[in-house]
Write a structure and sequence with these properties.
The chain is of the alpha/beta class. Helices cover 34% and strands 17% of the residues. The structure holds ligand BV8.
Length: 260
């Protein structure tokens, strides 16, 4: 367990946030755990128990067995549709509303930040670093679509060119879209406060963002019940579930109570 620098939220962080700093946040699967969406590190349940996500979330896996990979994402879409944003997601929307310049970069493709209202406030920005499970794209033309024909034979075919449709997400071995990379780098380089929430800080290039913030002399806060490679370097470590500690943070800083 990394040094538990503060069991409670330190006054320095509360006072700093009250000064309305430029703030950037990186989230990972951990912030959706309390919505009932399994994290990447948890074993896949049921049908998918025998698969490793890092094996399935690749272009090679899709090429080898498009039906299997499409089925995995269909299963995750149904799971996510039954989930709801939790208090951790809602607390980040409050922060976006309270702060002049708030950029949220999420590694998650579950759309829960958007459903909570993130990225829709003046001065707010939501960067979907690894895409969104509710969008698909044609493998031939990279044409992105939000709706697609339900077909007997899955994956569906592009209505324009007949090519296979795939989830509009970034797979292992694929580059993060340039626009998302640029927005995330800009946020990490210019922020005064950087939160890293619910991520194992393993997968690149997302995992470098908190370290870029440290290089830019930002005040870095980690929210994660478990230690990660960032833990020894963060200015503050809050080893608690995001759904508990983030509502407490917005209550202490802005006096805003988030009800269940
Ligand atoms: C790239 C979308 C350039 C899909 C994801 C060999 C060949 C090719 C590439 C590589 C290679 N070796 C290394 C690489 C680079 C690779 C990489 O980093 N690999 C790792 C494994 C070392 N990266 C890439 O491939 C990236 N692209 O490098 O392009 C390139 C191009 C061509 C050739 C070479 C290089 C693209 C990576 C994107 C992959 N897509 N997701 C999908 O979701 O299906 S990654 C996926 O896993 C997530 O999006 C996330 O980014 C990542 C890690 O997951 P986390 O979000 O951190 O979740 P995790 O389960 O790991 O941890 C949860 C955490 O939450 C835990 O710490 C837990 O303690 C905590 N927690 C739990 N409950 C709570 C909580 N915290 C707070 N509150 C709670 N309640």
């Amino acid at each position: 367990m990394g040094a538990n620098k503060h069991a409670v939220i330190p006054g320095a962080l509360i006072n700093l946030l009250r000064e309305d700093p430029i703030t950037a946040v990186l989230t990972g699967a951990g912030i959706s755990a309390e919505s009932g969406v399994p994290t990447f590190r948890e074993a896949q349940t049921g049908l998918w128990a025998q698969f490793d996500p890092q094996e399935l979330a690749t272009p090679q896996a899709f090429q080898k067995d498009p039906k299997l990979v499409w089925g995995w994402y269909q299963w995750r879409r149904e799971l996510v549709n039954q989930a709801a944003p939790n208090l951790g997601h809602h607390a980040l929307v409050v922060m976006e509303a309270q702060l002049q310049d708030f950029r949220l970069i999420t590694q998650n493709i579950d759309n829960l930040h958007y459903r909570a209202g993130s990225g829709q406030m003046p001065g707010g920005q939501l960067v979907e670093f690894h895409g969104n499970i509710h969008r698909t794209k044609c493998v031939e033309e990279n044409l992105v679509m939000n709706f697609w024909p339900e077909m007997e034979e899955m994956p569906p075919q592009c209505p324009r060119c007949g090519g296979l449709l795939r989830p509009d997400v970034v797979w292992f071995g694929e580059s993060v879209p340039e626009s998302a990379q640029n927005a995330a780098l800009e946020a990490a380089r210019t922020c005064q406060v950087f939160f890293s929430i619910g991520t194992s800080t393993v997968v690149e290039p997302a995992a470098s963002l908190p370290f870029i913030a440290l290089q830019n002399k930002a005040f870095v806060v980690e929210v994660n019940p478990e230690p990660t490679p960032l833990t020894p370097y963060a200015d503050v470590v809050l080893p608690q579930p995001a759904g508990n500690i983030l509502p407490e943070l917005v209550r202490l800083v802005w006096g805003i109570e988030l009800n269940v």
